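Annotated sample (chain length 271).
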Amino acid sequence: MTAITQHATDEVLTLNNVEVVYDYVSLAIKGVSLAVPKGGMVALLGANGAGKSTTLKSISGLLAAERGEVRRGEVKFQDRSISGLMPQDRVKLGIAHVLEGRRVFEHLTPDENLIAASAVRSRHDAARNKDRVYSYFPRLFERRSSAAGYLSGGEQQMLAIGRALMTQPKLLMLDEPSLGLAPFLVAEIFQILSRINREEGLSVLLVEQNAIAALEIVSHGYLIESGRIVMHDTAEALKKNPDIQEFYLGGAENKNFRDIKHYRRRKRWLT
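Output written by the structure step:
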């Protein structure tokens, strides 16, 4: 996959030929290049184990906790290399990462969870940001005094996104937000993400296996397979692509994308 060559002024995030290794040996992602435009919504699609979560962690700086590191390539945020920054410094720059699994403080209420995640010290500003989160997620306001551990899976996912918004990010990254949720909840959460993007101009990088839902709200998508980007196009083009339809939109179970018919004939995707 060739490196991204778009102008930096158009992008909030770029990855250029990034390679990640675990335990100094295992190569997890291999020359990944992608870009998220300012105010844009982009999806990173792929099967389980394809390298999606590792790609996000290379951006948020969470690889070290899993004995991983960026061995080659460059991660740039707002035209600045961030490869050497600690995770907390990346948060201060405006990168928010909602991890897979709806990780919230279960013994705290939604109110307390949001305040704990606040990036501002002023009580007035924190309260204003909290009200903003509740305006997007009225379900959380209704449950604001309940322990987060008693919230439904969808409500916990909303809370996880709300906690990220309390850091006042410029880039919101979400790892499998639809995982384990009923389709109507997925639709509701994705509609809210679209609203946040539209009203605040917040850039979004969405990692998903649920291609059907993801491609409805993003403008562009990347497909990652075995640690490599094998396709990049507009959401509309990806939805119409026959191989994407067969593998992701048509339920080709237990099949690797490389095994889909016509793949070898279309090897230009990898150049």
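Annotation: The CA atoms of residues 225 and 265 lie 17 Å apart.
Annotation: Residues 1-94+171-178+202-271 form a domain with the Rossmann fold fold (CATH 3.40.50.300).
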